[in-house]
Amino acid sequence: MRLRNIKNKDNILSKSKYLIKDIYEYKGKYKELFNNNNPIMLEIGMGKGKFIIENAILNKNNNYIGIERADSILAKAIKKIENNDVNNLRLIKCDADDLVNIFSNEIDTIYLNFSDPWPKNRHEKRRLTSKQFLDIYSSIFKDNNKIILKTDNRAFFEYSIVSLNQYGYKISNITFDLHNTDEDYITTEYEDKFANEGKPIYKLECLKM
């Protein structure tokens, strides 16, 4: 899908207090950035920010960091954040494979929401639940490794279950049709789209001690 260019996106990004400009500045020091020692929740591939913004508003005792690669998408997210003034949320422009250079044993929970499934076998290493990325996550988690994943892609979901189990994660909560359960949830933009199309939403939570 082609991204629509956002007018003045460079200006929006450069002036925003929510976007961390020097992405390596706070490695090991994020409690100083947030001025507290609250848990840090990281969303990898936050899109336009609906999920992470709503979580930050509802859960003031957690800190949230969203990462995204595209300037236009970040600009859209920043405009939403500034309309809500969410002080426990920051954004970083980066790729997921650079996380090891940005954090050091500081993350409590990772959200993987509707990640690119990379369906071809030759692209397995690009999947965010491959061993290559699970190795990266292990270096940035604080104590326990907790991952919460949602997707509309059945094949990616099944791959993730196997990969996480092989890496030592224990799955504590799993559903193959989230929107037909009694569980409370906050949706993403993609999730709303897929649910409106009648697609089932798959979700799991897992922990590695």
Output the CATH topology: Rossmann fold
**Rounded to an integer, what's the Rg over CA atoms?**
17 Å
Backbone shape: globular
Residue share in β-strands: 15-25%
Q: How many helical stretches?
A: 7
* Fourth-level CATH superfamily: Vaccinia Virus protein VP39
What's the gist of this structure?
By secondary structure, the chain is α/β, with parallel strands linked by helices.
How would you describe this structure to a colleague?
- The protein is α/β, with parallel strands linked by helices and 209 residues long.
- It has a single domain, classed as Vaccinia Virus protein VP39 (Rossmann fold).
- It is built from seven helices and seven strands, in the order ααβαβαββαβαβαβ.
- It has helices at residues 9-15, 30-34, 50-58, 71-82, 131-140, 154-167, 189-196; strands at residues 40-44, 63-68, 89-93, 107-113, 141-151, 170-175, 202-208.
- Strands 3-2-1-4-5-7-6 form a seven-stranded mixed sheet, sandwiched between helices.
- β2, α4 and β3 (89-93) form a beta-alpha-beta unit.
- α1 crosses α4 (71-82).
- The longest helix is centred in the C-terminal third of the chain and has 14 residues, at 154-167.
- It is globular and about 40 Å long.
Blueprint of the fold:
Layout: H1 9-15, H2 30-34, E1 40-44, H3 50-58, E2 63-68, H4 71-82, E3 89-93, E4 107-113, H5 131-140, E5 141-151, H6 154-167, E6 170-175, H7 189-196, E7 202-208
Parallel strand pairs: 1-2, 1-4, 2-3, 4-5
Antiparallel strand pairs: 5-7, 6-7
Helix pairs in contact: 1-4
